[in-house]
């Protein structure tokens, strides 16, 4: 037990003394953004315990409470701090649950993008030749279409093939697959470029001489040295995935109205913004913008930290 605790203590000490912690503690913007992101993620994770009401529970919703303004405005109800939507759901509660769905879809979609992109990028960069040409041409063809165009086309195909009701039941899984499939070339191209530089180094040649097979060399030796750009891309891609989900939901191709994400909340409220019920769209929109902004700023900070030539601390 002592050896395990000693090793854990040693690793923690090395982490505390690492460059990334040093630069993080010197950058106030990074600290604020990280604190905001953790606050949002914690609130989303514990939404069932924090939210005053459950927007999925139809028995707790009263249509007579629809379009109530925030508590501090005239005709506002103290029970609904940020007001209610057109169905009588508490905006504050729907934001917490919606943020939970948006973050879940964003993280899972990035995990899928990363998995596909890393495998394709490693394979193309390591083997080269015709395999490299074939895989990169596939990636180039997909990159020639915008992410949103691919997502809309695939979403429409799934909705037509499965039917609206079946699609609604598996909407979260469908969105993860759609967004993940649309963005993997970003990882593939970045990983391939890193592999082309790494595979010429001595440690790779030594692994080949020792008789290690290609998959072991690729995943256990080359991949760990490509993690810096992957981490930076992942941070930015989480924000992009959240925005893609919000855009699809706004267009009616995302989550159904009974599963409120930030995008679907904005879409619902947009129909009422000119009637005076601005809060239905405004508050989810502010949360979405803030969430995407802090993730992008963290991504920019990571990019600068991993590139010492441009980082000035």
Automatic annotation (TrEMBL):
InterPro entries: BP-dependent_transpt_permease, MetI-like, MetI-like_sf, OppC_N. GO terms for cellular component: plasma membrane. Its main location: membrane. Signal peptide: none annotated. Pfam families: BPD_transp_1, OppC_N. Keywords: Cell membrane, Membrane, Transmembrane, Transmembrane helix, Transport. The keyword Chloroplast does not apply. It is a multi-pass membrane protein. SUPFAM superfamilies: MetI-like (SSF161098). It is found in: Cell membrane. The keyword Transmembrane helix applies. Residues 99-299 form the ABC transmembrane type-1 domain. The chain crosses the membrane at residues 29-51, 105-129, 141-161, 167-184, 222-243, 278-299. GO terms for biological process: transmembrane transport. Belongs to the binding-protein-dependent transport system permease family. This is Dipeptide transport system permease protein DppC. It comes from Photobacterium aquimaris. The gene is dppC_3.
